[in-house]
Amino acid sequence: MLQRSRPGTAEEFARDAGVHVDTVRRIEQGGVASPGFFLVTQLADALGLGLEELRERIRRVDADLISEKGAAGGDET
Hints:
Blueprint: H1 10-17, H2 21-28, H3 37-47, H4 51-71
Helix pairs in contact: 1-2, 1-3
């Protein structure tokens, strides 16, 4: 989600956010379950988003993923 949210490479995004590119990649791959507040603010700043807008975008992505999973018959309850 992060990389698709802006043009450029993951390296450029990481540099703009002030974090290591491996951190960006781990977050994108779900390897960071609960990133810290300051990391989230750095990423939001690099995306040019306020925290509230970032939260809303994440909610929409989550809703889309849940919807796609249900449409594919992946409801595992």
